[in-house]
Design goal:
It contains 4 helices and no strands. The chain is mostly helical. The chain has a domain of 80 residues.
């Protein structure tokens, strides 16, 4: 009886925490509102302040998204690094995969930050229409 209650409460806690994390990951403000093709077209045709600002906002959203994913991978990296058994692991190890993803997400966040800066400068220099 006690085991059943503990199992049920553990299941509820895991389900609730997963629901919160997935809801936080898919918040409406964290999803870019443009497709890749639309962004390419907008970058090609941009010449007004509004267009450059829209591009800067898009890349700012992407930067936040990549920073959030990098933080998640950093957490996984720390967990996997604490539980290393080198004799039984195959290469690439899970800790290496988490580290590589963390570094990739940081690189993409930095790239998005540089694009935000670029489009903000272009917006400052563009004519207002």
């Amino acid at each position: 009886m006690l085991r059943l209650r503990l199992l049920a409460s553990a299941t509820l806690i895991v389900t609730f925490s997963f629901g919160l994390s997935s809801a936080a990951a898919t918040a409406p403000g964290d999803r870019p509102e443009y497709s890749t093709a639309e962004i390419r077209q907008l970058a090609r045709d941009a010449h007004t302040v509004q267009q450059f600002s829209a591009l800067a906002d898009y890349y700012q959203t992407r930067r936040r998204m990549y920073q959030r994913m990098a933080a998640h991978e950093m957490h996984l990296w720390a967990e996997r690094n604490a539980v290393m058994t080198p004799l039984s692991e195959k290469w690439p190890r899970p800790v290496d995969a988490a580290r590589n993803l963390y570094e990739y997400y940081l690189q993409m966040a930095d790239e998005s930050a540089s694009l935000v800066e670029r489009y903000n400068k272009l917006a400052d220099a563009a004519p207002y229409q």
